[in-house]
């Protein structure tokens, strides 16, 4: 026991010791984010170049996890800002009064869809994430399945049991697709489409990126996912066609906001100002084809053509208000049925 | 036993004079244990479970969340599926693990150390790795998919295979502990009376391992019910309770509903506690003060068969994980099978590079040292002291609890409790220290059951004799119980270390800037489609855990072997 005690004490001390303070004169800004891992470095560098007194500290996880975590911490928030998180999540935060009121300088220049429409102003959009089909052409060839161009093409009998999509109750991407069909096709036609699509679906997965990754690995022929995931898998060498269906697809946007309780409001506001600049949007444009600043358009490698044109008129407010009802209806239609399969 | 001794020799047991301060110390220690367990388990869980009575938007909702959940059409399906998968896994794993444990402890087959290490391999690997391996082997592009005869691995088949792999070492550890300590004299008596092998097995071996068998079955059952990692990755369209909790919490941020599902999953643990109490009344100590440890003698046929069986099981396990390691070198599965070391350059897939691995090592080391101390001393207090029985019962209940709590639920409870503005402990939030505490709490049960199983088999006569000699219990603990159980203690340390290296579900809500763990990095890389990098990091973790395990084997062989010489009978030594 004493030996154990001798070992334990220094360990306890080491664990409790604060992490070595680096660059004490800079303000540490904790930012919760769902940005992709490879974006974190460039974004940190971009922010710190524009606002030299700040040191960015990321806490990154998938959208669902980081949203759940932020809400769970709401009585004692740990984040100073949120960034690169789905606007639908930020709307939830806004509703609960967790975001600071601040309108960054220069937001008037951004496309209207990327600005908080409600007063008080809290969040600002950066880019759009668009629902796409990741279609494995190598696997499709084996079944003689045609590369889809429109949603209806996914109903082809050759694709029976070969399509995966994210579960709308588990993944924001899944809900975005469902909300896209309901808004784009109209409620009745949207449900009718999903009824038929359900017959071709192999599984509703509990992750937004997994369907595209599975399609890229040839586990499935078609996976519904987001544009950026599709482009990234294709760049890595997957035999994928990434399609933004021409008849209109659902989307969400990434956005940022200042957390109401932050003690570093001054620097956070400077970072927020930077986020709406053209320079920042040029950085976003390295990963996303559709960004908030008009005229900034450098299409990333392997990005689906015509994505911006395919975006439906999306009402984020409608998505938030109808989420519970849509999910309940979805569950009634497809989960009870799944049992009988 | 104490009472019997006291009745027989009333004047030899000076009850009043020597026992009073000792009783006080014991009571204080037990109260301390209860306090720690309440703090790291009951309060965080209580805080979360209070949420089950809240409306999703806030405010008191009474039982309406439960009503809503029970009205959901998918509930019954998820519940039945969970029970079916867990039941099937128990039925497969417990007999397999029992036979394996028997081969390791009761036969003289060769390569026992290696075969033990190989069987524990699933424990060493983050659970995602078995998912990656199974997709490569049995997935729609898998090279052995023909074995499934047209069935898809994504569904109950995949879940059961992966859960069997995952649960096997947990069952094995408990059963080995149950079988390792046994009295050779019973077998000698049986042999002297000409009892047949099967009859000896049925009347001596099985009853002796009864406690271990029941514990193993419950541990496996509960592990499977609460695990969401495997069903999430390979479950396809097959809902279970744990994925229900996941989608409530992560998919919809509906904490009250998540808490409702979490409460449902507590049921098996409460049941386990009741059964444990029942068995405890019947189980008599196997290792009495006069015991002689059983030492298997060579028996060529039995040893050969055992080796063949253990080799087959270990071979399957190794092959599965071997595929996953191979996957970490493949350039782009399944379209470019060229080999590369690129995926081990983690900085390319995750900006933190190798830092999470360092964090994991530090965290796991702390969990091993602090957790083992707490768990073993705690088990001793609960098992061997006869004071403050209400406190011991509470501690026992709390110790059985975490097994039944899905990591996700425990992690959220920690957020709500340790991040509360009124809680002075909230300075710990985001530190590695909280990750350590959380991980000790999360893996408390199996460690506790193992320690208890080992302690149960030591005759209470040791304590009785000590008491009559006026030796306080802490001396008995230090001089008798701890040395006898030293192999178990080291086993616990390695068990905790390894689990701390691989755990994800609870800590994913708790890590802060700069304290991200390797296992979390794996989940992130896999989500981002960097499957090979995820497999690579998982392989590094597996190798680390394997090294810890081999170090233990060496210690056992060269250090403990000498320390445990007293166990042997002088005549045979």
Mean pLDDT over the residues of chain B: 86
Number of helices of chain A: 13
Order of helices and strands of chain A: HEHEHEHEHEHHEHEHEEHHHH
Report mean pLDDT of chain A, rounded to a whole number: 90
Label the structural class of chain A: alpha/beta
Beta-strand percentage range of chain B: under 5%
Q: How much of the polypeptide of chain A forms β-strand, as a percent range?
A: 15-25%
What form of chain B results from the Cα inertia axes? globular
- Our Rg estimate of chain B from Cα atoms comes to 24 Å
* Largest β-sheet summary of chain A: 9 strands, mixed
Q: pLDDT under 50 segments of chain B (min length 5)?
A: 1-19
For the largest interface, the chains and their residue counts are: A-B, 72 and 69 residues
β-strand number of chain B: 2
Oligomerization category of the chains in this entry: heterodimer
Q: Biggest sheet of chain B, in brief?
A: 2 strands, antiparallel
What gap, in angstroms, lies between the N and C termini of chain B?
Answer: 31 Å
Query: Helicity of chain B, in percent?
Result: over 70%
What's the number of extended β-strand segments of chain A?
9
Radius of gyration from the alpha-carbon trace of chain A, in angstroms: 22 Å
SSE string of chain B: HHHHHHHHHHHHHHHHEEHHHHHHHHH
Summing up helix and strand content along with how strands pair, one would put the structural category of chain B as mainly alpha
